[in-house]
Amino acid sequence: MKTTLFFSALACFSLSLSAATPYINKVYEYLPAPGQFVNTMPEYESGDNASSILSKVEEAILADNKGLITLGALGGYVVFGFDHTIVNVPGQYDFRVWGNAMVNTSEPGVIYVMKDENGNGIPDDTWYEIAGSEYNNAACKHNLEITYYRPASSSEDIRWSASDGTSGVVARNTFHNQPYFPQWLNDETISYRCTMLPPNYTYSGGIYYLNAFDYGYADNHPNTDERSGIKIEWAVKADGSPANLSGIDFVKVATGLNQVLGPIGESSTEVSGAEDLHVDADGVDDNFANSSVVLLNTGATDCLYISCVEPVDVSVFSLSGACLAAEHLAEGDNSMEVASLAPGVYILRTPKAAFRFVKF
Description:
The chain is mainly β. It contains 3 helices and 25 strands.
Protein backbone atom coordinates (compact mmCIF):
# COMPACT_ATOMS: atom_id res chain seq x y z
CA MET A 1 0.00 0.00 0.00
CA LYS A 2 2.77 2.41 0.87
CA THR A 3 4.61 1.67 -2.37
CA THR A 4 1.45 2.23 -4.41
CA LEU A 5 0.84 5.53 -2.68
CA PHE A 6 4.39 6.66 -3.40
CA PHE A 7 4.08 6.10 -7.13
CA SER A 8 0.62 7.71 -7.15
CA ALA A 9 2.20 10.79 -5.56
CA LEU A 10 4.75 11.01 -8.34
CA ALA A 11 2.03 10.64 -10.96
CA CYS A 12 0.04 13.56 -9.58
CA PHE A 13 3.10 15.84 -9.26
CA SER A 14 1.57 18.16 -11.85
CA LEU A 15 3.25 21.48 -10.90
CA SER A 16 6.04 22.50 -8.58
CA LEU A 17 6.82 25.95 -7.25
CA SER A 18 10.32 25.87 -8.73
CA ALA A 19 9.66 29.26 -10.34
CA ALA A 20 9.98 30.84 -6.90
CA THR A 21 13.34 32.44 -6.21
CA PRO A 22 14.73 33.38 -2.80
CA TYR A 23 15.55 36.94 -3.84
CA ILE A 24 13.87 40.33 -4.13
CA ASN A 25 11.80 40.55 -7.32
CA LYS A 26 10.35 44.08 -6.99
CA VAL A 27 11.15 47.38 -5.25
CA TYR A 28 8.05 49.43 -4.42
CA GLU A 29 9.47 52.53 -2.78
CA TYR A 30 12.82 54.19 -2.12
CA LEU A 31 13.10 57.33 -0.01
CA PRO A 32 16.54 57.81 1.54
CA ALA A 33 17.14 60.48 4.15
CA PRO A 34 19.97 62.93 3.38
CA GLY A 35 23.44 61.45 3.68
CA GLN A 36 26.98 61.32 2.34
CA PHE A 37 26.25 58.48 -0.12
CA VAL A 38 22.88 59.80 -1.32
CA ASN A 39 22.88 60.67 -5.04
CA THR A 40 25.77 58.22 -5.56
CA MET A 41 24.26 54.86 -4.44
CA PRO A 42 22.41 54.79 -6.80
CA GLU A 43 23.85 57.61 -8.88
CA TYR A 44 21.64 60.59 -9.58
CA GLU A 45 21.89 61.94 -13.11
CA SER A 46 20.32 65.11 -14.46
CA GLY A 47 16.70 64.43 -15.39
CA ASP A 48 16.22 61.53 -12.98
CA ASN A 49 12.90 61.36 -11.16
CA ALA A 50 11.48 59.02 -8.54
CA SER A 51 10.61 56.41 -11.19
CA SER A 52 14.05 56.33 -12.81
CA ILE A 53 15.79 56.23 -9.43
CA LEU A 54 13.55 53.31 -8.43
CA SER A 55 14.67 51.48 -11.58
CA LYS A 56 18.30 52.04 -10.58
CA VAL A 57 17.56 50.68 -7.12
CA GLU A 58 16.02 47.58 -8.68
CA GLU A 59 19.03 47.15 -10.93
CA ALA A 60 21.22 47.14 -7.83
CA ILE A 61 19.35 44.86 -5.42
CA LEU A 62 16.99 42.59 -7.40
CA ALA A 63 17.75 38.89 -7.72
CA ASP A 64 21.35 38.05 -6.86
CA ASN A 65 22.79 41.29 -8.30
CA LYS A 66 24.45 42.30 -5.01
CA GLY A 67 24.67 45.99 -5.86
CA LEU A 68 24.50 48.49 -3.01
CA ILE A 69 22.07 51.27 -2.13
CA THR A 70 22.22 53.72 0.75
CA LEU A 71 19.26 54.64 2.96
CA GLY A 72 20.92 57.81 4.24
CA ALA A 73 20.43 59.06 7.79
CA LEU A 74 17.78 58.09 10.36
CA GLY A 75 14.44 57.05 8.84
CA GLY A 76 15.51 56.71 5.19
CA TYR A 77 13.99 53.53 3.78
CA VAL A 78 13.39 51.07 0.96
CA VAL A 79 10.37 48.77 0.48
CA PHE A 80 10.65 45.55 -1.51
CA GLY A 81 8.90 42.23 -2.08
CA PHE A 82 9.32 38.68 -3.35
CA ASP A 83 7.56 36.45 -5.91
CA HIS A 84 6.06 34.34 -3.11
CA THR A 85 5.13 34.45 0.56
CA ILE A 86 8.04 33.91 2.96
CA VAL A 87 6.76 31.35 5.44
CA ASN A 88 7.15 31.75 9.20
CA VAL A 89 8.80 28.51 10.32
CA PRO A 90 8.78 28.58 14.14
CA GLY A 91 12.23 28.56 15.69
CA GLN A 92 14.04 29.13 12.39
CA TYR A 93 15.55 32.13 10.65
CA ASP A 94 13.17 32.94 7.79
CA PHE A 95 14.94 35.62 5.74
CA ARG A 96 18.03 37.79 5.62
CA VAL A 97 18.58 41.36 4.39
CA TRP A 98 22.04 41.79 2.90
CA GLY A 99 24.14 44.80 3.82
CA ASN A 100 27.83 45.64 3.89
CA ALA A 101 28.46 45.21 7.62
CA MET A 102 31.83 43.93 8.78
CA VAL A 103 33.29 43.59 12.26
CA ASN A 104 33.20 47.03 13.97
CA THR A 105 31.40 48.62 10.99
CA SER A 106 27.72 47.96 11.77
CA GLU A 107 25.06 50.50 10.71
CA PRO A 108 21.86 48.74 11.81
CA GLY A 109 18.62 49.23 9.95
CA VAL A 110 15.21 48.58 11.50
CA ILE A 111 13.17 45.96 9.63
CA TYR A 112 9.40 46.01 9.16
CA VAL A 113 7.34 43.23 7.56
CA MET A 114 3.90 43.06 5.98
CA LYS A 115 1.53 40.31 4.94
CA ASP A 116 -0.55 40.92 1.80
CA GLU A 117 -3.76 40.63 3.81
CA ASN A 118 -6.04 42.13 1.15
CA GLY A 119 -4.39 40.10 -1.62
CA ASN A 120 -3.90 43.01 -4.03
CA GLY A 121 -0.15 42.48 -4.49
CA ILE A 122 0.98 45.88 -3.19
CA PRO A 123 2.30 46.91 0.27
CA ASP A 124 -0.75 48.79 1.55
CA ASP A 125 -1.63 46.68 4.61
CA THR A 126 -0.16 46.85 8.15
CA TRP A 127 3.56 47.11 8.87
CA TYR A 128 4.88 45.13 11.83
CA GLU A 129 8.29 45.92 13.31
CA ILE A 130 10.82 43.15 13.82
CA ALA A 131 11.59 43.46 17.52
CA GLY A 132 15.35 43.14 17.52
CA SER A 133 17.58 42.99 20.58
CA GLU A 134 17.23 46.72 21.33
CA TYR A 135 13.45 46.94 21.01
CA ASN A 136 12.91 47.19 24.79
CA ASN A 137 16.07 49.19 25.47
CA ALA A 138 15.11 52.36 27.38
CA ALA A 139 17.26 54.38 24.96
CA CYS A 140 15.31 53.10 21.93
CA LYS A 141 12.72 55.62 20.71
CA HIS A 142 9.66 54.31 18.92
CA ASN A 143 7.30 56.25 16.67
CA LEU A 144 9.72 59.17 16.39
CA GLU A 145 9.13 61.73 13.65
CA ILE A 146 12.17 63.39 12.11
CA THR A 147 12.20 66.12 9.46
CA TYR A 148 15.12 67.14 7.22
CA TYR A 149 15.35 70.56 5.58
CA ARG A 150 16.70 71.23 2.10
CA PRO A 151 19.79 73.49 2.41
CA ALA A 152 20.10 76.76 0.53
CA SER A 153 23.23 75.40 -1.17
CA SER A 154 24.74 71.96 -1.64
CA SER A 155 27.75 72.99 0.45
CA GLU A 156 25.68 73.37 3.65
CA ASP A 157 24.98 70.77 6.32
CA ILE A 158 21.45 69.31 6.36
CA ARG A 159 19.38 70.52 9.32
CA TRP A 160 16.94 68.18 11.07
CA SER A 161 14.43 68.39 13.91
CA ALA A 162 12.60 65.57 15.68
CA SER A 163 9.34 65.13 17.58
CA ASP A 164 11.22 64.53 20.85
CA GLY A 165 12.47 68.14 20.79
CA THR A 166 15.98 67.37 19.57
CA SER A 167 17.63 68.93 16.52
CA GLY A 168 20.95 68.84 14.73
CA VAL A 169 22.59 68.41 11.34
CA VAL A 170 23.72 65.72 8.96
CA ALA A 171 27.21 67.14 8.59
CA ARG A 172 29.05 67.23 5.30
CA ASN A 173 32.59 65.86 5.11
CA THR A 174 35.56 66.29 2.79
CA PHE A 175 35.32 62.81 1.29
CA HIS A 176 31.92 63.25 -0.40
CA ASN A 177 31.26 66.52 -2.18
CA GLN A 178 27.99 65.84 -4.01
CA PRO A 179 24.64 67.19 -2.69
CA TYR A 180 23.42 65.16 0.31
CA PHE A 181 19.71 65.96 -0.13
CA PRO A 182 17.97 63.62 -2.66
CA GLN A 183 18.17 65.59 -5.91
CA TRP A 184 15.22 63.93 -7.65
CA LEU A 185 12.83 65.38 -5.05
CA ASN A 186 11.35 68.88 -5.24
CA ASP A 187 10.24 69.03 -1.61
CA GLU A 188 11.76 71.55 0.78
CA THR A 189 11.45 69.07 3.65
CA ILE A 190 11.32 65.27 4.03
CA SER A 191 9.75 63.66 7.10
CA TYR A 192 9.87 60.09 8.40
CA ARG A 193 8.20 58.25 11.26
CA CYS A 194 10.58 55.61 12.53
CA THR A 195 12.28 53.78 15.38
CA MET A 196 15.58 55.26 16.55
CA LEU A 197 18.00 52.74 18.02
CA PRO A 198 20.50 53.57 20.78
CA PRO A 199 23.95 54.76 19.66
CA ASN A 200 26.15 51.79 18.77
CA TYR A 201 29.61 53.33 18.67
CA THR A 202 32.59 53.44 20.95
CA TYR A 203 35.56 55.78 20.48
CA SER A 204 39.05 54.67 21.38
CA GLY A 205 42.52 55.75 20.24
CA GLY A 206 41.11 58.14 17.69
CA ILE A 207 39.00 55.39 16.05
CA TYR A 208 35.22 54.98 15.98
CA TYR A 209 34.04 51.38 16.41
CA LEU A 210 30.49 50.65 15.20
CA ASN A 211 29.37 47.72 17.32
CA ALA A 212 26.78 45.19 16.20
CA PHE A 213 23.58 44.68 18.18
CA ASP A 214 22.80 41.09 19.17
CA TYR A 215 20.09 40.31 16.60
CA GLY A 216 17.16 41.48 14.53
CA TYR A 217 18.52 44.21 12.20
CA ALA A 218 19.79 44.77 8.67
CA ASP A 219 23.42 45.76 7.94
CA ASN A 220 24.27 44.69 11.48
CA HIS A 221 26.19 41.40 11.24
CA PRO A 222 28.09 40.23 8.13
CA ASN A 223 25.85 38.52 5.56
CA THR A 224 27.58 35.18 6.19
CA ASP A 225 26.98 35.38 9.95
CA GLU A 226 23.99 33.34 11.13
CA ARG A 227 23.02 36.27 13.37
CA SER A 228 22.10 38.32 10.29
CA GLY A 229 19.08 36.02 9.87
CA ILE A 230 15.62 37.33 10.78
CA LYS A 231 12.76 35.36 12.34
CA ILE A 232 9.26 36.41 11.34
CA GLU A 233 8.11 35.35 14.79
CA TRP A 234 9.93 38.46 16.13
CA ALA A 235 7.37 40.72 14.40
CA VAL A 236 5.26 42.80 16.80
CA LYS A 237 2.20 45.03 16.60
CA ALA A 238 2.33 48.73 17.43
CA ASP A 239 1.68 47.93 21.12
CA GLY A 240 4.59 45.49 21.23
CA SER A 241 2.47 42.33 21.33
CA PRO A 242 3.34 39.45 18.96
CA ALA A 243 1.96 39.82 15.44
CA ASN A 244 1.73 36.01 14.97
CA LEU A 245 2.18 36.16 11.21
CA SER A 246 2.06 32.93 9.23
CA GLY A 247 4.19 34.54 6.54
CA ILE A 248 5.15 37.85 4.93
CA ASP A 249 5.13 39.33 1.42
CA PHE A 250 6.84 42.72 1.82
CA VAL A 251 9.81 44.10 3.75
CA LYS A 252 10.74 47.65 4.67
CA VAL A 253 14.23 48.55 5.89
CA ALA A 254 14.94 51.94 7.49
CA THR A 255 18.14 53.42 8.90
CA GLY A 256 17.89 53.08 12.68
CA LEU A 257 20.71 55.33 13.89
CA ASN A 258 20.94 59.10 14.29
CA GLN A 259 24.63 59.75 14.83
CA VAL A 260 27.39 61.67 13.04
CA LEU A 261 30.84 60.38 13.89
CA GLY A 262 33.49 62.93 12.99
CA PRO A 263 35.27 62.29 9.69
CA ILE A 264 33.38 59.06 8.94
CA GLY A 265 30.10 60.99 8.78
CA GLU A 266 26.60 59.85 9.60
CA SER A 267 25.67 56.21 10.18
CA SER A 268 23.57 55.07 7.23
CA THR A 269 22.18 51.62 6.57
CA GLU A 270 23.11 50.09 3.23
CA VAL A 271 21.19 47.29 1.47
CA SER A 272 22.48 44.96 -1.23
CA GLY A 273 19.62 42.46 -1.48
CA ALA A 274 17.60 39.97 0.55
CA GLU A 275 16.81 36.26 0.53
CA ASP A 276 14.18 33.82 1.74
CA LEU A 277 16.15 31.31 3.82
CA HIS A 278 13.66 28.52 3.14
CA VAL A 279 14.05 28.62 -0.64
CA ASP A 280 17.35 28.02 -2.43
CA ALA A 281 18.36 29.46 -5.79
CA ASP A 282 16.44 26.68 -7.58
CA GLY A 283 13.22 27.41 -5.71
CA VAL A 284 13.38 24.27 -3.53
CA ASP A 285 12.20 24.61 0.06
CA ASP A 286 15.10 23.80 2.39
CA ASN A 287 12.68 22.23 4.85
CA PHE A 288 12.16 19.31 2.45
CA ALA A 289 15.64 18.07 3.31
CA ASN A 290 15.69 19.02 6.98
CA SER A 291 12.23 17.91 8.09
CA SER A 292 10.99 14.49 9.17
CA VAL A 293 7.98 15.21 6.94
CA VAL A 294 8.25 15.28 3.14
CA LEU A 295 5.53 16.76 0.93
CA LEU A 296 5.66 14.58 -2.18
CA ASN A 297 3.51 16.78 -4.42
CA THR A 298 3.53 20.57 -4.36
CA GLY A 299 0.65 20.74 -6.84
CA ALA A 300 -2.63 18.92 -6.26
CA THR A 301 -6.25 18.74 -7.40
CA ASP A 302 -7.59 16.28 -4.81
CA CYS A 303 -4.94 15.07 -2.36
CA LEU A 304 -1.60 15.95 -0.85
CA TYR A 305 0.75 13.00 -0.49
CA ILE A 306 2.93 13.20 2.60
CA SER A 307 5.67 10.88 3.85
CA CYS A 308 6.35 10.90 7.61
CA VAL A 309 9.28 9.45 9.55
CA GLU A 310 7.08 9.50 12.68
CA PRO A 311 3.46 10.36 13.55
CA VAL A 312 2.81 14.08 13.28
CA ASP A 313 0.04 16.71 13.34
CA VAL A 314 -0.23 18.80 10.17
CA SER A 315 -2.39 21.79 9.25
CA VAL A 316 -3.28 23.64 6.06
CA PHE A 317 -3.29 27.45 6.17
CA SER A 318 -4.34 30.10 3.68
CA LEU A 319 -1.80 32.82 2.90
CA SER A 320 -3.86 35.14 5.11
CA GLY A 321 -3.17 32.87 8.10
CA ALA A 322 -6.54 31.06 8.40
CA CYS A 323 -6.34 27.40 9.42
CA LEU A 324 -8.45 25.46 6.92
CA ALA A 325 -7.74 21.81 7.76
CA ALA A 326 -5.84 19.71 10.28
CA GLU A 327 -5.03 16.00 10.52
CA HIS A 328 -2.92 13.58 12.50
CA LEU A 329 -0.74 11.58 10.14
CA ALA A 330 0.74 8.17 10.81
CA GLU A 331 4.32 7.07 10.24
CA GLY A 332 4.89 6.24 6.58
CA ASP A 333 3.02 7.45 3.49
CA ASN A 334 -0.23 9.38 3.89
CA SER A 335 -2.78 11.19 1.76
CA MET A 336 -4.63 14.35 2.84
CA GLU A 337 -7.76 15.48 1.01
CA VAL A 338 -7.69 19.08 -0.30
CA ALA A 339 -10.35 18.85 -3.03
CA SER A 340 -12.64 21.25 -1.15
CA LEU A 341 -10.09 24.09 -1.19
CA ALA A 342 -10.46 26.87 -3.71
CA PRO A 343 -7.67 27.04 -6.34
CA GLY A 344 -4.66 28.97 -5.03
CA VAL A 345 -1.47 28.80 -2.99
CA TYR A 346 -1.55 27.37 0.54
CA ILE A 347 0.81 26.48 3.38
CA LEU A 348 1.15 22.99 4.88
CA ARG A 349 2.52 23.33 8.41
CA THR A 350 4.03 20.84 10.82
CA PRO A 351 5.39 21.68 14.30
CA LYS A 352 8.86 22.12 12.79
CA ALA A 353 8.45 23.00 9.11
CA ALA A 354 6.23 24.63 6.51
CA PHE A 355 5.73 23.98 2.79
CA ARG A 356 3.94 25.86 0.02
CA PHE A 357 1.65 24.00 -2.36
CA VAL A 358 -0.71 24.87 -5.21
CA LYS A 359 -4.32 23.70 -5.28
CA PHE A 360 -5.68 23.52 -8.83
